[in-house]
Amino acid sequence: MGREQSQYVIVGGSAAGMAAAQAIREKDPTGTITVISEEPDAPYFRPLIPFLVSGKKQAHEMALEGCGPYQAAGITVNTGSRAAALDAENNSVVLEDGTRLGYKKILLATGSRPYVPPDIEGTEAEGVFALRTLDDARHMAARIDQTGHAVMLGGGLLNLKAAFALLERGVKVTLVVYSPEVLSQLMEPEDATLIRKALDDAGLTVMTGVAAVGIKSNATGVTGVVLNNGRELACQMVCIGKGVRPNVEFLAGSGIRVTEGIEADRYTATNLPGVYTAGDVAVTHDPVAGTPIMTALWTNAVEMGRCAGQNMVGLKTAYCGTFGILNATQVANEPFVAMGIVHTKDGDHEIHRKAAAGSYRKLVFDNSGDHLIGAVFVGDITNAGLYRYVIREKMPTAAIKRQIIEHTLHYGHFGTGSVQ
């Protein structure tokens, strides 16, 4: 194949990539922008894909309009195209079909893929899914008519949303969770009590402290899941939600510094000139814990992508990182927010918990008691944004600690400054 040229090349057509494309176009109205997207679909809003399974939305309703009208802006999006190698010495990326695409600046925003534990046998069977893409959702929805019982492996947020999508379609669902409780990455078992009750009330069966060791199948697909306690659950569908892994394999031999993901400085630049990174594939910084982290949060990907796009056109926009835990959503109509450091150790933190009818709140201060470093709200999430501000800005809390603990904090406690 031949060589093509684009001033800006973006590898990855999801949140970070499309946010970067929009940011570039805002500052450079004429530079050529080419987005390489592995998926066959035009860019879409990934958090909505469980609604395709439930039947509440169609694929066209998930079009990624929030990152700008890229077609009207003259942004070329090559769908169904995959990067095979980065040739940074020659400022080009090689695609799987052999095309060599040259660039002046390139963003690596290849995202992540579902992790399928290798110790679970039978994961290649028909009817085994890891809900990550629109195609996954389509195939999952297509199998519902053959499914009376689905088993979800993992108690994370996406698996819970997928479980409820199936429940809404009349499928019986069992959640198999190795951890002591659901949402273990976002909160401690005690924090999840109200959410667990909501799951039980909704008719979802939850099994904790057990793991799958195998998946049984026949010519028609999945027939059951074998657990490590010897029990077998008959089912016709399995959904694996055991985390993600960054898509970095194509960078082997490129010279890009890769640890768990792609390393970048605070301006989203990698160790190679003209090469930037953003989103799930990038290693970023947790300003609360002071540690490097990777996060698969959509809002983080958009924010980091915009920073990268601005830096690619010559601005100097710092990306300040994100909390290792920062999630605001609802499960079984139970809203919750988890942010900052929420997994605690005796003696290392000052912890305040309050449970009331239909609500739960946990506040985590550092061991000096002077700084709020984490919070969990379930049910009543009023003013959670103010608590996020206190955590993010590392505000001394002596003057407002009583209000923080009593949940009477309000905008007046922050003077005339902007709280975002």
From TrEMBL:
KW RNA-binding (keyword) present: no
UniProt keywords (A-Z) are: FAD, Flavoprotein
Q: Where is the signal peptide?
A: none
Q: Where is the FAD/NAD(P)-binding domain?
A: 7-305
State the InterPro entries in the record: FAD-bd_OxRdtase, FAD/NAD-bd_sf, FAD/NAD-binding_dom, FAD/NAD-linked_Rdtase_dimer_sf
- Per the record, the coiled-coil ranges are none
Q: Does the keyword Flavoprotein apply?
A: yes
Q: Name one GO molecular function term.
A: oxidoreductase activity
Q: Which cofactor does it need?
A: FAD
Give the similarity note.
Belongs to the FAD-dependent oxidoreductase family.
Q: What is the designated name of this protein? A: Pyridine nucleotide-disulfide oxidoreductase
